Amino acid sequence: MKTHFLFSLLVLICSGLLPALVQAQVANKPPDTVAGIAVNYNEELVGTYSLPDPLVLPNGQKVTDAATWNKQRRPEIRTWFEQNVYGRAPERPRNLRFDVFDKGTPAFNGKATRKQVTVYFSERNDGPKMDLLVYLPAAATKPVPLLLNVNFQANSSLVDDPGVRPGQIWNKEKQKVPAPAYNPAGPAKLAVEPFLAQGIAVATVYYGDIEPDFNGGIQYGVRSLYLKPGQTQVAPDEWGAVAAWSWGLSRALDYFEKDKAIDSKRVVLLGASRLGKTVLWAGANDPRFAMVIASVSGEGGAALARRNYGETIAHLVAPTRYAYQFCQNYQQLANQTDAPMDSHMLVALLAPRPLLLQTGNTDNWSDPKGEFLAAIAATPVYRLLGKKGIETNTLPAASQQVGGTLSYYMHDGGHGIIPSDYPVFAEFMRVHLLQRK
Question: Which of 157, 273, 295, 297 is catalytic?
Answer without folding.
Answer: 273
